[in-house]
Amino acid sequence: SIHIKFCFIRIPHSLDVRAKVFVVVDIAAPSRDFPATPRSRIPYRERIIRMNARMCVMRSAGPRTTRTRAAGRDEQNPSLSETGRGRVTRSDVTRSSTSHVNNMRENSAMTSAVWKEGSPLAFPSPSVAESYSRQEPPTVVDSMGREREMEKEKEVVQIVDCVNMGSTTRAVILAGGEQKNPLTHYRAMPAVSIGSCMMLIDVPINNCLSAGINKMYVLTQFQSHQINSHVASAYPPQGFGHTSGWVDVLTAQQTVAAKEWYKGSADAIRRNLMELKDEARGVEPAEDYVIMSGTAVYNMEISRVVGFHRMRKADITICSLQMGAEAAKTKGVVVADEVGLVSGFHEKPGGRVSDLVNDDNQALVSMGVYVIKRDVMLRLLEDGDSSSMGGRPMEHIGHHMIPAALEIGARVFTYEHDGYWKDVSTLRDYYEANIALTSKSKTPIKFFELERAISAKKGKMLPPAKMCGSVDIDESILGDGAILSDGCVSRRSIIGENVLVGAGSIIEDSLLLGSPVWTSESQREAAKARGDLIFGVGRNSVLKRCVVDENAYIGDGCIVRNDAGVAEADRSSEGYMIQDGLIVVLKNAVIPDGTVI
User: Fold this and answer.
1) What DSSP string describes 507-559?
2) Element (H, E) at 344
3) Phi, psi of 360, rounded to the nearest 5 degrees
4) Where is mean pLDDT largest: 88-97, 235-244, 470-479?
5) Higher pLDDT, 203 or 11
6) pLDDT digits over 243-275, tens only?
7) Residue 99 neighbours by CB under 8 Å, 6+ apart
8) How far apart (Å, rounded) are the C-alpha atoms in residues 79 and 61?
9) 172, 205 Cβ separation under 8 angstroms
10) Rounded distance, CA 567 to CA 579, Å?
11) Are 416 and 364 spatial neighbours (Cβ–Cβ below 8 Å)?
12) Distance CA 113, CA 56 (A)
């Protein structure tokens, strides 16, 4: 029993590419290069995937000639790649016709390939192929159609395929921290909704699923009940089919060796190493672990990050991005050379950030996303409460783990992310990240990009949003089950699930987080007859630049817009607070009719 990852076949020049290709692999016994592997260790689904791995049959055009690597082309073969690789690639010649592709698909029952414009797998047309005196042997490519040899002058990051990511990579999502935020009085920040129908914890899970990582651990501690129930209902094991995937929640617990709460991010990982090793799962051990924060909004190709990590043969890779000096004071600042090799890491440097910025007053800031080799992680964290570096406590990744790795000579690199990233640990950041999702043109990230890999968001079905009568809606997101009555206005706002907005009310630049309970029209009429309150906004009310938490009731004729410009205020007894100039109507609060805030 051996693993066959790639199969390369040299096709004779006279063979028609449309003919069937039958491959017979005769394996007598395991050899030194292909050691035996117990069949029981390979999951059934993975065995089937490997047996049906793609086999790409290529045909290249043009004779071999002397290439000029610097120029990337020569006189005899003008179709050389502009990248200067000194070889013919399929993207440099005329693409195949539709008939060639259809014939290849129909005739080759044993093979499959992805055909797209600009792909190096495309076949040249007959006219181009016949114009050459003889055919060149095929260029060796990997299963994703990319060249295996990377030029030394310019290295290209190879994206790791989904099958490889699912079997060799695990994700650890940190969702247990405590934030001083009015929205976290009853749940952890990763459990707060974003964009009307998702939670913040869904963002890192979505990035993992998009990359093919189907084995994830969510580490929780503070106010963890809502996260636990959401993950259990939205990502059940049966949702992963036969791929042996899971999203497990590892809550803080007392053990024989430790009876206190987690002391930090690194301590939380260390306390759960037994589960993270997957020794009792019956699956192949992971090669790399992707450690992610549960309180950030971003969209990242994790497979490209892992490809960079393996291409550099790094022990630890830190995802980073450029940020202004003022904002970098409270972040982790990375010091690296032009190829990304890290020589220093400074967690929350404060005033010292002026020594770490570049000529544009920008600093390279950690995103809280790391890729770390399995053996390096075990070496740094398995030594009990302290590392081998002079008894230093391993409590935080930024304060302790990264500096310890640099001290022992580990290869630490940084991958610079050029897309959108927003830390939402504070109320102001959370508000700005949500409002950015509503913009038509200026939004740095589209809402559908956050949920593209999530098929079962909350494990429940809700009716669609309903608009009764004439409603004015501009740059807004409406959650399922929301009801907007006649004459109401919504501008640059998010109306959460099951929210009722009364007739004539105006919602501007506001977040209404919704209610977990949907009520039908008959139930609302019966509640009115009994004099009961209905969660949502009453008639003729005005809400501007505010956040309304779940299950809150705002009566008729209320004004919530902070005209006085108050920066901070605690009116919890009255059902609201003001932080960073934003009014937050607390969970389960009741704002009486005619109230002005």
Assistant:
1) EES-EE---S----HHHHHHHHHHT---SEE-TT-EEESEEE-TT-EE-TT-E
2) strand 342-347
3) -90, 15
4) 470-479
5) 203
6) 678 999 998 887 777 778 888 899 999 999 989
7) none
8) 10
9) no
10) 6
11) yes
12) 6
The answer to whether the beta carbons of residues 166 and 243 sit under 8 Å apart is: yes
Whether the Cβ atoms of residue 222 and residue 183 lie closer than 8 Å to each other = no
Helical ranges in 325-373 per DSSP H: 325-328
Amino acid present at 97: S
Neighbours of 521 (CB within 10 A): 10
Question: Which residue is associated with the tokens 């004729």?
Answer: 557
Contact 239, 354 (CB under 8 A): no
CA distance 183 to 206: 23
- Point out the least confidently predicted range of 110-119, 306-315, 558-567, 573-582: 110-119
Residue 10 is predicted with a pLDDT of 54
Separation of CA 45 from chain center: 24
The letter for the amino acid at 485 is S
Give, in order, the Cα–Cα distances in Å from 286 to each of 26, 171, 216, 436.
Answer: 30, 10, 11, 37
Do residues 317 and 371 touch, judged by C-beta distance below 8 A?
A: yes
Distance from C-alpha of 266 to C-alpha of 50, rounded to nearest angstrom: 36
Residue spans of beta strands (DSSP E) within 256-325: 288-293, 296-298, 316-324
In the chain, the largest separation of any two C-alpha atoms, in whole Å, equals 90
Structure tokens at 161: 């395929």
The two structure tokens encoding residue 596: 């002005």
- pTM > 0.85: no
